[in-house]
Design goal:
Radius of gyration of chain B: 22 Å
Number of helices of chain B: 9
Number of strands of chain A: 9
Helix content of chain A: 40-55%
Structural class of chain A: alpha+beta
Number of domains of chain B: 2
Number of helices of chain A: 18
CATH topology of the largest domain in chain B: Ribosomal Protein L22, Chain A
Largest interface: A-B, 104 and 80 residues
Strand order of the largest sheet of chain A: 1-4-5-8
Largest sheet of chain A: 4 strands, mixed
Oligomer: heterodimer
Order of helices and strands of chain B: HEHHHHEEEEEHHEEHHE
Number of strands of chain B: 9
Distance between the termini of chain B: 40 Å
CATH class of the largest domain in chain B: Alpha Beta
Shape of chain A: globular
CATH superfamily of the largest domain in chain B: 4'-phosphopantetheinyl transferase domain
Chain lengths: 622, 295
């Protein structure tokens, strides 16, 4: 599907724009609106999903009472079950935006009822037998829940700590407590599996009907040290599976998190997902999918944080008019909204790449998981300059803001995500620099679009090193087109000149990166651990983020009346990314930040989301 | 994977404490033993240096150029020698400390700057850093627990509670300071100021966050952020502290625990999961039954 290098970049088909919608996009909007409606008025103290209820649950450190209705009454469990198994998981854009609505209310809600079940099911869809997949899908469609004790990461947080060991074999417990050699290589062992160990923090442990457990099946390090089990909680005799509340976490206090201990659990051989030793590979597959989708969900919290700041600024402004913002407030708000758009561009591309370019999707996913949490955290902190003393207030919208800020590092894309994404990104870059950058043609335009038909998702596809880099190719291809068409399309002349300059700067950075990465020996297995190579990966990730924004703008630039078609937001986005890269930057010769502020206020007053889509939110503005 | 099964993770544990007082390596030669131990055991270290120890002997050497990397142009363009020296000294301190933490040569550590100017270790931001300088003191905080902010001021700095400087303090602080004797007030003010700067830097705001929008209690109770009227503004995830160094500077730090590793290796290699790296780079990727989603 790649267009050969040297060919002119074809004009995208008429873009749906952020105002228009095709059937697929319409269906997503409809479901988002439905979830918004079900979650109800955030300001209503009697609403079980309102601010008062969420803050009370957080203060008590208890799960939100009645939140089980999300799975049992609203069918939210179906969002993570493939359509082929009777669920609604068919497209990443729908998955991301529906669960983003949960994060707009609370990270506890999003993690407990969205991300947790999603991460638990991915290994089942990827490697489960027909029976296992049927069991899991029936469970979720019937209002039951699955929880996961994920792959233990070297640099993880509480969710990836602790260790379980699974001993496949014909008989008993190893007397010396160590693992045995002689694990059957040819598939599932006949004698069942013995599972032991403790995981200190499992999302949704108490109510889970099934547990997906990444357990060690071989001592030492290496790609084949772990296996994955799908454990039916009800099948274990009493006392073998012990569940207790986890130690109080630093955040996510309205989310049910429990400790899980397996005490010499004898499990049938059919418990194994995939084959013995598949753990790291299945973790990579789940990780690729999660990196491409979860950061985009968490952005919902950033939306509410920005909305809170706009609301606060309006209250403080003379006459309560949100339009009467101080220059400092305008600058901060514009920067934050643009950062949210950068994050959403990456999220869109990474999610759609899973459909459109699965063989090359790993890099966009890793970049998304690496860049979005950092940018989001910085952006929410930046809003402190607007909120002032209210930054520390724990009531009403301010309280929700503060809880989100505290919860953000635990949303599964923070500390762990960064490390795991680096593990997925760094080893691939030297090869991509040599083989793909400045050579590959531009990817299909559908990568940057909203809605439209998409090829089916394949969660089970093994993760290989990326075959190409669609984002680097986009930067080079569009950069060439921008120079060729003389800036006649896509906006005012000054903005387009700025844009050409900024895109030129990013392309130059890509060339420098290529030269430096080509110096890394192809057979240097220690290179990923070198801070110099890790710094190159960081610079690449920022360039790739710019490329994702450029692709989205280029796709939308002919959509009349669309904010995304204007170059203002893109100029601001590339200025921000260029600054982070330390590139020489052109001056702000056009009122691009002002245009962004106007859009922020428009969306605030019309209760539309702060992302690429402008989804309609619950009628209350906050 | 040596860090597995260690540390409380994101669970609330006892308040974070530094490993003793701020440490002083006397230059690139160290001593580094206590710095390494603090990082290994606590995940956080506060280091200070005096300019004389860290100003490069040869201001335009190839070695310094290699060490400064992308900052070289900025360094060369600095017209005032004192500013240039302080810049080089602070970068040498950062890169040597970070190099020890990452177990890499200092010139392999790249510094980058966030909008607003806050430095960070590019590609290695599992280690957060914060830098402050005043007089001949350089102060550096390094943590992998989450975020850190540090500030240093001369102990005899005169800060007023009246006039234009009144707007630097919250109503709660003004009231509390009014009850302090004249003799003790300057000490309290310097301590409060450094805590405010440290916290503001830890959340990436520097002076952009107005200092009368948040405050701290006076010395004597465990420090925490307070709202202008004295209510608790931060939770268990934050810890703060102050100390006096070289008997003439007051230093403070603000530490944000976001669930990063408290103990274990901080090396760049330890951040990567080698099981995942090997799974990715291994050619022997066997295809299992694909799970197609969609129609």
């Amino acid at each position: 599907m790649l267009i050969p290098t040297g060919q002119p970049v074809p004009a995208p088909r008429a873009a749906a724009g952020d105002g228009g919608a095709d059937a697929a996009e319409g269906a997503v909007r409809e479901r988002v609106a439905e979830v918004e409606r079900l979650l109800g008025d955030p300001a209503d103290d009697a609403n079980p999903f309102g601010r008062r209820a969420l803050l009370d649950a957080d203060a008590r450190g208890r799960p939100l009472p009645g939140a089980d209705v999300l799975a049992t009454g609203w069918g939210l469990g179906a969002e993570v079950v493939p359509v082929s198994l009777g669920g609604r998981l068919e497209r990443t854009d729908r998955l991301v935006r529906v669960l983003r609505a949960l994060f707009r209310r609370s990270a506890s809600l999003g993690v407990g009822h969205g991300v947790g079940p999603l991460l638990a099911t991915l290994p089942v869809w990827a490697a489960g037998t027909v029976r296992q997949r049927r069991w899991a899908s029936d469970l979720l469609l019937g209002g039951g829940t699955l929880a996961v004790a994920p792959y233990e990461l070297a640099y993880g947080d509480c969710f990836t700590r602790g260790e379980c060991t699974a001993v496949p074999g014909r008989d008993g417990i190893p007397r010396d407590g160590t693992l045995r050699d002689g694990i059957p290589r040819d598939g599932i062992p006949r004698g069942g599996i013995l599972l032991d160990g403790r995981r200190p923090a499992v999302v949704g442990a108490a109510r889970a009907d099934g547990l997906v457990v990444f357990a060690r099946t071989r001592p030492g390090e290496g790609a084949r040290s772990h296996s994955v089990l799908l454990v039916e909680a009800a099948s274990l005799p009493g006392g073998r599976l012990v569940r207790r509340p986890a130690r109080r976490l630093l955040g996510l206090r309205a989310c049910e998190v429990g400790e899980v201990e397996f005490r010499t659990c004898r499990l049938p051989a059919g418990t194994l997902l995939g084959q013995v030793g598949d753990g790291a590979e299945l973790a990579l597959r789940s990780h690729r999918f999660a990196c491409a989708t979860v950061p985009g969900m968490v952005l919902g919290g950033g939306d509410t944080a920005l909305r809170t700041a706009v609301w606060h600024a309006g209250r403080q402004a003379p006459g309560g008019a949100a339009g009467a913002l101080s220059p400092r407030q305008r600058a901060v708000l514009a920067r934050v909204f643009v950062n949210l758009l950068v994050c959403d561009c990456l999220s869109r591309v990474a999610g759609r790449a899973l459909h459109l370019l699965p063989e090359s999707s790993g890099v966009a996913a890793a970049v998304t998981g690496y860049v979005v949490p950092r940018l989001l955290r910085e952006s929410v902190h930046d809003l402190s300059a607007v909120l002032g003393a209210r930054f520390h207030c724990d009531e009403g919208p301010y309280g929700v803001f503060r809880v989100f800020l505290r919860d953000l590092p635990l949303t599964g894309v923070g500390h762990v995500g960064g490390a795991a994404c680096q593990s997925a990104l760094v080893p691939q870059l030297p090869e991509l620099a040599r083989r793909s950058w400045l050579r590959d043609g531009t990817p299909p335009w559908e990568l940057f679009a909203a809605g439209g038909a998409l090829p089916p998702l394949d969660v089970g596809r093994p993760v290989l090193r990326a075959a190409g880099d669609p984002l680097a190719a986009t930067l080079v291809g569009i950069g060439r087109s921008l120079g060729a068409d003389g800036g006649r399309r896509g906006g005012p002349r000054t903005e387009l000149r700025l844009l050409r300059e900024l895109v030129g700067g990013l392309t130059g950075e890509l060339r420098r990166l290529r030269a430096e990465l080509c110096e890394v020996p192809a057979d240097d297995t220690a290179a990923p651990a070198n801070p110099r190579v890790q710094a190159l990966a960081d610079r690449y990730a920022l360039v790739a983020a710019g490329a994702a924004c450029l692709g989205v703008w280029y796709h939308h630039r002919d959509a009349a009346g669309s904010f995304l078609a204007e170059p203002a937001w893109l100029v601001e986005a590339l200025l921000g990314l260029g600054h982070r890269l330390g590139l020489p930057l052109p001056g702000r010769e056009a009122p691009t930040a002002e245009r962004v502020v106007r859009e922020i206020l428009d969306r605030y007053h019309s209760a539309r989301s702060y992302d690429l889509y402008g989804d309609r939110l619950y009628a209350d503005r906050l | 994977m040596s860090g597995r099964r260690r540390g409380p993770g994101a669970a609330v544990g006892p308040p974070l404490r530094l490993h003793g007082p701020p440490l002083r390596p006397h230059g690139p030669a160290g001593p580094w033993r206590r710095v390494r131990r603090a990082l290994r055991e606590r995940g956080t270290v506060l280091v200070y240096g005096l300019l004389d120890d860290w100003v490069p002997r040869e201001p335009y050497s190839a070695g310094l150029r290699r060490l400064l990397g992308g900052d070289w142009g900025r360094y060369e363009a600095m017209a005032v020698a004192a500013v240039r020296n302080r810049f080089a000294a602070s970068r040498r301190l950062i890169k040597h400390v970070a190099g020890y933490a990452l177990q890499a040569p200092p010139e392999d550590v790249e510094l980058a700057y966030r909008p607003g100017g806050r430095p960070y270790l590019r590609g290695c931001d599992h280690l957060d850093i914060s830098l402050s300088h005043t007089g001949d003191l350089l102060l550096l905080g390094v943590t992998r627990r989450g975020g850190i902010g540090v500030d240093a001021e001369p102990a005899d700095r005169r800060t007023l509670l009246s006039g234009a400087e009144r707007r630097l303090w919250t109503p709660y602080e003004i009231e509390a300071l009014a009850g302090v004797g004249e003799a003790d007030r300057p000490r309290q003010l310097v301590r409060l100021w450094t805590l405010k700067e440290a916290y503001s830097k830890a959340i990436g705001q520097g002076m952009r966050f107005r200092f009368n929008d948040f405050g701290f209690p006076l010395d004597g109770v465990p420090p925490r952020v307070l709202t202008p009227h004295g209510r608790a503004g931060t939770g268990d995830e934050w810890s703060f502290g102050s100390a006096r160094v070289e008997n003439r500077y007051v230093v403070s730090w603000a530490l944000h625990d976001t669930g990063g590793r408290g103990a274990g290796a901080a090396a760049a290699a330890a951040r990567l999961d080698w099981g995942l790296v090997e799974a990715l780079t291994s050619c022997d990727v066997r295809r299992s039954q694909p799970g197609m989603i969609g129609s």
